[in-house]
Structures are given as C-alpha cells and as structure tokens.
Design a protein that fits this description.
The chain has 105 residues and is of the alpha+beta class. It has a single domain, classed as YaeB-like fold (2-Layer Sandwich), CATH 3.30.2310.20. It has 3 helices and 5 strands; from the N terminus they run E-H-H-H-E-E-E-E. A 5-stranded mixed β-sheet has the order 1-5-4-3-2.
C-alpha cells in the first residue's frame, strides 16, 4: 500500500501458529471436498496479503496488550475469519485463530 508521499508501506511478516496451520490444512481439504478449492485458495491469498500490507485496516481491535506491545484484532477476508495480534514496532502479525464461515464449512 502506498503512503501519501508515494513510498511503499513496510510489509509485515505474518506468523501462523501450528494450530492455525492445521486448521487451514483441514479447511483446504474441506474446500476440495466441496469443490471450492479455487475460492479457498483465493480467499487465503487475499487474507495473507491484507495481513502483510494492512493488518490494522483489515479488522477491528479487540484489546490492547500494551505490556506485550501487541494489539489483538479480529478480521475477515471473504469467508475466512481470523484473530491475530499486531506488533507495529517489529512489523509482525501473529495469527492465532482461523475459521471459515458459511459455504458448507
């Protein structure tokens, strides 16, 4: 995403917990069974891109964890919903929960 001065915003590094990676694998299997693999892949890529470029603009704040330097947020892209923490100082995003809503999931 470009800044008002025309420079690119820094990209965040996104860290998915083991539990989220397992959930995404299961969701991918379910998407395949439903014949929705292309839609799932597109939703996941879109979500990942938003988390990398604009995690604060993606969702809504849940709580400020000032002692940890994190803001906990929730957001969605298409039918994928996530809960995640944003560390603005270190440009990190920690995805701690992911679920698909609707479409037979």
């Amino acid at each position: 995403m470009a800044q008002p001065n025309g420079t690119e915003s820094p990209r965040y590094r996104v860290v998915y917990t083991e539990a989220v990676r397992a959930a995404l694998k299961d969701l991918g299997t379910r998407a395949h069974e439903l014949g929705m693999e292309p839609e799932f892949v597109a939703a996941l890529k879109g979500l990942d891109e938003r988390l990398r470029t604009d995690p604060v603009g993606l969702g809504e704040p849940l709580r400020d964890l000032a002692n940890a330097g994190l803001e906990e947020r929730t957001g969605n892209h298409s039918f994928l919903f996530v809960r995640y923490g944003v560390d603005r100082a270190r440009l990190l995003v920690y995805v701690v929960y992911c679920v698909a809503v609707g479409h037979g999931f």
